[in-house]
Amino acid sequence: MSQSINSMKSLAACVFVFAAFVTQATADLPPDVESAWRDPAIEFRPRTRWWWPGNALRDAEIDRELHAMHDGGIGGVEIMGCWRVFSRGNVSYLSPEWAERVRHAVRTARDLGMKVSLTFGPGWSFGGSWVSPEDRSKALVRAFVDLSGGTTFDGPLPAYVPAEKPTDFNRVQPWLRSTAPDELRVLAVVAARVTTDGIDGDSLTELTGQAHDGTLRWTAPPGTWRLMVFRLKYTGQICHAQTDPEQHWVVDHFNPDAMRRHVEHLGGILEREFGDEFGRTIDSLFSDSFEMKPLEDSLLWSGDTLERFAARKGYDLKRYLPALWENIGPLTPRVRFDVNEFFHELGRESFFAVFTGWCEAHHLQARIQPHDSFPTELIEAAGLCSRPETEKSSTEFEVMAFPRKSEAAGARFYGRPVLSAEAFTVLHRARYRTTLEELKRATDDFLRDGVTQFYNHGWFGTPERVPVPSRDIPWAVRISPWSTWWPYYHLLSDYTARCSAVLRAGRFAGDVLVYSPYEKTWAGRGIWGGDWRKVPYGDLGRLLVANGYDFDPVNADVLLHRASIAHGTIAIVGNDYSVLIFPAVRCTDPEVVRFALRFAQKGGTVIALDELPSAATGLIDAAKRDAELRGLVRELFGADGHGCEWPSGGRTRLVTGIPLYEPDFPIDAPPDSYRVPPLEAGGRELIALLHD
Q1: In whole angstroms, what is the distance from residue 59 CA to residue 508 CA?
Q2: C-alpha–C-alpha distance, residues 423 and 127, integer Å
Q3: What pairing do the DSSP bridges indicate for beta strands 365-368 and 387-390?
Q4: Sorting pLDDT into bands at 50, 70 and 90, what band is 20?
Q5: CB neighbours of 182 closer than 8 A, spacing ≥ 6?
Q6: What does the pLDDT average to over 208-236?
């Protein structure tokens, strides 16, 4: 206990010393920045996720907890209903009793000057009991049978058999038979010759038109052939963290009409109940990270996906569907890229445009965590949110190009003034272990990566005044009176508010743009399962920041449509960058390379790590676009591929030896897992180029 008290005193001393130092320096600051530091408004204070187990909180307990939050320096709440852990007092989401309890919380928060955000649905995941069978989440599933040459297949097509052990946490029910009329509808039938490393792409044979009423008669040519059937299967996924008597179904995120019906239905209820506080005390509606999952070995899909794909991409995907699962040869990365890019665009239109549009039309911000398993490219996805929100916490030196800095860059490039964070989730797996000192270090990590609004994770709503592990939810950090250091928390809250206010008053000043290698990720994988769609930056972010160079990730959309080139710099919404890095970007749009060439010719520095772009993206006009890209790469990096120099001072270089891998998010990891990357050969060369 004495060690904990000493840690608290040490933290307090650090905060006060830092405050004194900045106060001495404020004489030279602009008045708005000095004011932001000296007296930050309540909007800059940390807010908190406020779990309502079973929505069982009564008015007196709501008042007590809100006053405790306010006294501790918390400036707002996000109300999220969750599992029923009490034997009495539970009420269902959207019931009259629930609405009255939320209304009381909003009134009390208003009186305290606090803001309220409402999770858009029961628990988390987009959905609810009102989602019709046809509007529920769907997946593309595959079944197959291998046939020897000369064998005649005559009978029912291979049946889809769900996995025996589904992932319970994701609340997917693959064994459930939907009542929707298109459950298990056959979308395509394709046969192909089996090879030692996949299937022969030249042998792909579409048989969809020959299948009738789920049966097929077909004779396999010589060799071993794989007969594949692709069906539409409802996932049966239900919303997370819910034990209401009603079943709350996850909505189909890739059907714009289903999304519109869902948003207008639920939004209409919330507007009727609380609309007088929209844009006032209630400032946002919240969408948690996209933990909507396909079935095992499948891809999230919708009823008209194939038709939409053909209209957008210009070719029929049915013949190429095997490429999402297996190697079909040289066309594999092109088909996978096209499918991933298509879902990026479809997600942008069906989810982000619908939800954000509704919120902004009703004077609310759409506060969205655009990461996890959703296919929309992360930088652009952050820009599609009224207020993007990131997460992933660490207590040591950890520069997170993905997801934190990618979302910070997206917010900045697309004109979103605030990046919030779900902060401190699972700093330790052991509950109640986190210290205030660790929270301070994690806070600095978030601030450095661009976060300017904190949502603590979090506050467990309960009338019990001491921790009761059997009536608690699993995530570890409790920033509430349950923690022994709660009397000191206001020091961290003050610090966080001041830093958030100053950061919002200022402007990011980075040196380097790092081109996101998302296109290589899209070309490399078709079936994602429940995995995050991570982008491999590896040690690059930590290497740059540790050696004095901050950076922003950037995508093709920003470079081609939001950036301009001056002498030696790329200008994006008031920020100027003198260096553009391509980290192992194997495939990209030729126009991106053309932009880099213009930048180098006008005095900029372009650095490729590990490899040069070698292929254009996509299936249509592949040979023509490949030749165009390779010609531009030769002009940019020279015939030998090592680099060029221009009279303007522009230059290009190829640097190897910097580890680039998918990020992981370690918990309870030893400090050396967050070490500053050593300056080995590749790192020394890169930093020397930046110094020069």
Answers
A1: 43
A2: 24
A3: parallel
A4: very low
A5: 134, 232, 303
A6: 97
Contact 53, 85 (CB under 8 A): yes
- Other C-beta atoms within 10 Å of 647: how many? 7
Parallel, antiparallel, or unpaired: how do β-strands 152-156 and 215-219 relate? antiparallel
H-run or E-run covering 504: helix 489-505
User: What residues form DSSP beta bridges with 217?
Assistant: 154
Strand ranges (E), 220-332: 224-234, 249-250, 282-287, 299-301
Instruction: Evaluate whether 378 touches 409 at the Cβ level (below 8 Å).
Output: no
Among candidate residues 424, 365, 435, 353, the one with its CA nearest the CA of residue 393: 424
- E-assigned strands of 281-341? 282-287, 299-301
In order of 72, 171, 183, 318, the CA distances from 258 in angstroms are 42, 20, 16, 24
User: Is residue 382 exposed (0-12), middle (13-18) or buried (19+ Cβ within 10 Å)?
Assistant: buried
pLDDT tens column, 99-130: 999 999 999 999 999 999 999 999 888 999 99
Instruction: Write down the pTM of the prediction.
Output: 0.93
Number of residues in the chain: 692
Distance, CA of 179 to CA of 457 (rounded, Å): 38
CB contact at 8 A, 626 and 633: no
Question: What crossing angle do the helices spanning 305-313 and 332-347 adopt, rounded to 10°?
Answer: 110
- Look up tokens 């040459």; give the residue: 149
Look at residue 6 in the predicted model and tell me its pLDDT: 44
**What's the CA gap between 15 and 18, in Å, rounded?**
5
Residue matched to tokens 């609380």: 274
- Give the three-state DSSP class for 107: helix
Average pLDDT over residues 26-37: 68
- String of DSSP letters for 642-675: S--B-TTS-EEEEE-----------SS--GGGGP
- Cα 342 to Cα 135, 314, 317, 436, 683: the distances in Å are 20, 11, 11, 45, 36
d(CA 37, CA 685): 39
**74 CB-near residues (< 8 Å, 6+ apart):** 45, 46, 47, 48, 114, 456, 459, 493
User: What's the rounded Cα separation, in Å, for the pair 274 and 103?
Assistant: 7
At 193-202, the pLDDT tens digits run 999 999 999 9
Q: For residue 24, what pLDDT is reported?
A: 39
